[in-house]
């Protein structure tokens, strides 16, 4: 194992310096380099994007998969990089139960036949739901996850680096400020050379200090080093760097000033390096934060695709249920193939308007009971009073010869007959006549 003690000690020193700087900033004992207003706005915008993306992602997952246990299972499969097993939808499971019930209760009975028809419709609804979940996961959930697990992690990493560079920069500023203060204090202390007779007796404190093992020079060496005289140890006069004091013991004021000049030069050099690294990291982080605008554009496109897939899903559900109502009402004893009616134009108006004007098929209870004779149009004549004009809202394709096909925005004459289903009217257009659903019409006064 390659264990570098020097690097470990250096990293520990840097971490301790940053921790001290951060703590002093929190207690208001140190200055902090502030970012410009534009940069702060970019940071706030990025944080908001991340928070709301997480909330939208979680709620969309709940919408697509309401079962929390199934969501946990899918999450574990995703983290283990394994394929999620195919799961039966609720509609398909209901269809399976209905089909089994019809098989046991009697597929030829009215109840069994109806169960089979409803089971087929529920199966189609389950398949439509499966397609919707698959499409929404690919076109909407996956891009949101990619942003949180990719781009946002990169942004967070660069922001942490920027924070460390700022702490290093502020620590260098504080170090330079202290060095300049000590240099100014050393400059104000007057230098002197004391002359004394050779038989001058040192005070006890001075003798103890000079004889201390922390001073590497003997008295003879001291006089040779400083022939003009002697002075008390430098750390009695000004606050020196402890490491310098221990290394040299007793210094002259001239050397003290030189050391502090060197210390100031070194601090200025470190400050320039720290400022350069901070500016470079700030520019990198700024570019990443400005890329949030591109993320919004991408999420907007995904949101449109999600709406389109959801619109298709609900339109399919509407067609399947309308077809089921027709089967239950008009063909109670026989199962017929699905005949997809013309769906209302979903893109001709806003989603709110389309949802408000979505036609609802005729109720099952109001349709003709089994065994009722089919309406003979040739025998139908309009009443003396009670005819009205109606405008067609949506295209309608006739299911059989007794119905009248409609085109949107055309005007027809409509009227009702005694005992007729209230959800239907007789419509006439020229020499053509047939039943039309009330929900596809706008009656005019």
From TrEMBL:
Main localization category: cytoplasm
Subcellular location: Cytoplasm
Occurrences of domain SH3 (ranges): 385-445
Keyword Oxidoreductase annotated: no
Ranges in coiled-coil conformation: 250-284
CDD domains: BAR_Endophilin_B2 (cd07617), SH3_Endophilin_B2 (cd11944)
Family statement drawn from the similarity comment of this UniProt entry: Belongs to the endophilin family.
Name assigned to this protein: Endophilin-B2
Species of provenance: Acinonyx jubatus
């Amino acid at each position: 194992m390659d264990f570098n003690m020097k690097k470990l000690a250096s990293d520990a020193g840097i971490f301790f310096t940053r921790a001290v700087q951060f703590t002093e900033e929190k207690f208001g004992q140190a200055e902090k380099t502030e970012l410009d207003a534009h940069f702060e706005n970019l940071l706030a915008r990025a944080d908001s994007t991340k928070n709301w993306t997480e909330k939208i992602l979680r709620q969309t997952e709940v919408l697509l998969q309401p079962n929390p246990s199934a969501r946990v299972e899918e999450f574990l499969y995703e983290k283990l990089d394994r394929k999620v097993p195919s799961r039966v939808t609720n509609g398909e499971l209901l269809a399976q139960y209905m089909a089994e019930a019809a098989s046991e209760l009697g597929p030829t009975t009215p109840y069994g036949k109806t169960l089979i028809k409803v089971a087929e419709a529920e199966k189609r609804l389950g398949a439509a739901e499966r397609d919707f979940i698959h499409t929404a996961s690919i076109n909407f959930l996956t891009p949101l996850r990619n942003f949180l697990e990719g781009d946002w992690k990169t942004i967070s990493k660069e922001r942490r680096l920027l924070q460390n560079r700022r702490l290093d920069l502020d620590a260098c500023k504080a170090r330079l400020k202290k060095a300049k203060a000590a240099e100014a204090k050393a400059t104000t202390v007057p230098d002197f050379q004391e002359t004394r007779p050779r038989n001058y007796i040192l005070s006890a404190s001075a003798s103890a200090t000079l004889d201390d093992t922390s001073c590497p020079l003997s008295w003879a060496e001291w006089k040779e080093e400083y022939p003009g005289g002697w002075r008390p140890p430098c750390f009695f006069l000004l606050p020196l760097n402890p490491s310098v004091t221990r290394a040299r013991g007793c210094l002259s004021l001239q050397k003290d000033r030189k050391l502090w000049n060197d210390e100031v030069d070194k601090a200025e050099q470190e400050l320039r390096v720290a400022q350069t690294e901070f500016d470079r990291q700030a520019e990198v982080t700024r570019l990443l934060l400005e890329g949030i605008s591109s993320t919004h554009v991408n999420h907007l496109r995904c949101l449109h695709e999600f709406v389109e897939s959801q619109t298709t899903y609900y339109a399919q559900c509407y067609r399947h249920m309308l077809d089921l109502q027709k089967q239950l009402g008009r063909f109670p004893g026989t199962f017929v193939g699905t005949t997809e009616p013309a769906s209302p134009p979903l893109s001709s108006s806003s989603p709110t308007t389309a949802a408000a004007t979505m036609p609802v098929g005729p109720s099952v209870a109001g349709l003709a009971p089994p065994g009722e004779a089919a309406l003979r149009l040739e025998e139908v004549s309009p009443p003396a009073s009670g005819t009205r004009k109606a405008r067609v809202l949506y295209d309608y394709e006739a299911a059989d010869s007794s119905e009248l096909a409609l085109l949107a925005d055309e005007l027809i004459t409509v009227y009702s007959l005694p005992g007729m289903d209230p959800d239907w009217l007789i419509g006439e257009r020229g020499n053509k006549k047939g039943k039309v659903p009330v929900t596809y019409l706008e009656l005019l006064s």
